[in-house]
Fold this protein.
Amino acid sequence: MADPLRIALAGLGTVGAGVIRLIEANGELIARRAGRPVEIVAVSARDRTKDRGVDLSRFAWEDDMTAMASRADVDVVVELVGGSDGPALTLARNALGAGKSLVTANKAMIAHHGLALAELAEKAEVALKFEAAVAGGVPVIKGLREGASANAIERVYGILNGTCNYILSTMEATGRDFGDVLKEAQKLGYAEADPTFDIEGIDASHKLSILAAIAFGAKIDFPSVETEGISRLRAADIEQAAALGFVIRLIGIADTELGANGEDTLFQRVCPYLVPVDHPLARVNGPTNAVVVEGNFAGRLLFQGAGAGDGPTASAVVADIIDIARGDVGAPFSVPVNALAPMPRADAGHRVARDYLRFMVADRPGVLAEIATAMRDAGVSIESLIQKGRQEEGGEVMVSIVTHGGPEANVDRALELLKGSPSLTEPPLVLQLLDN
Ligand code: NAP
Ligand code: HSE
């Protein structure tokens, strides 16, 4: 058998320890499939004394993880530290600069610096792989780069954050409180170091921007992702959605459309959507991720599985290592960086959508008329309107409206008309309905 592929592993947390356990458990079959053994030679983390439930005694320890990039006995650096910048980025740059392949699960770093890192990898003719960065154990990057590579991709969308999906589906099933379920997701190892990245949709936006670049051959453009998280949702929204035949899921959607001057533009959005109960994404519960890829010849492809956690994420990391052992050094974003198109952000205003609008309002005469007038004046057609009964005289009530399909700009205009109204006790919440 050929020489081992020698790995340096930076980061020994949930995913890093998972990678060690996986390579230990499946080493022989990995060697058969890769055509050579995969061997960890060096590891690094912050605290050398921490018990991680894995035996580190066989590996060299580096206090300074960036030193791994210059070790002569290392072929591949695996970065499982996290953070878009800081030590993870320094390590990534140094490793690629030193002609070592890099595997990472770090979507924040790829979303912010993926193009520059891919340029370094292409220049050094080494691999940069990040399957685990999107949808954990679900091989959706491989699906796009390999299985669906003959297709023009029309749309890519799905559930990209396990923490939010765990929170939303658990709240839906148990009626429990948001904060309580978030704590549980953190304990289970699903959440990012900074959980606001999960609940404010930033983590899903990182992932969507990576998928969009690969799907549409576009330069990655994370700042242009319209992002809204789940922290403003109330249990009453989930209940209301259920009464209307929907569940609420945090969904990322990307597609391309022609701009005003006939140029290709890129639409990228992450926000909570009302998903019809008979849609395949409505049945995705817990930390599961699911991504729908619509190809012009393959049709609708659904990639689904565990989006977070040690085992599934390690599975994706080690799959990338196996690819490298097999000699796969393809362009990280499918096409070389200089062939990726700089696609401007699409103007979403003319997109047609049905919306769920939730208003918290003062319970007094004329408030409904005020909302309905703003809708009428902005050209928004109301399909249904429900007001939840008052709790106390003059108290706050919830009014939820579902609109007929219409341009998004009209809803924006209606909300503009209502802005600053003393009848509204908090800014309205707008969620779109996902089409089937
Ligand atoms: P984690 O449990 O917090 O582990 C991070 C590791 O990095 C720890 O071992 C920590 O060392 C080490 N570290 C942090 N800062 C360091 C520094 N300045 N110098 C040296 N080592 C440092 O994180 P994780 O959940 O495994 O996530 C790792 C990466 O995978 C992140 O990019 C994350 O977004 C991504 N990811 C995670 C999941 C998941 O389910 N957890 C899924 C997909 C992708 P100590 O242990 O000594 O503190
Ligand atoms: N925090 C992420 C999630 C981990 O909840 O999906 C996987 O990327």
Remarks:
- Residues 349-433 form a domain with the Alpha-Beta Plaits fold (CATH 3.30.70.260).
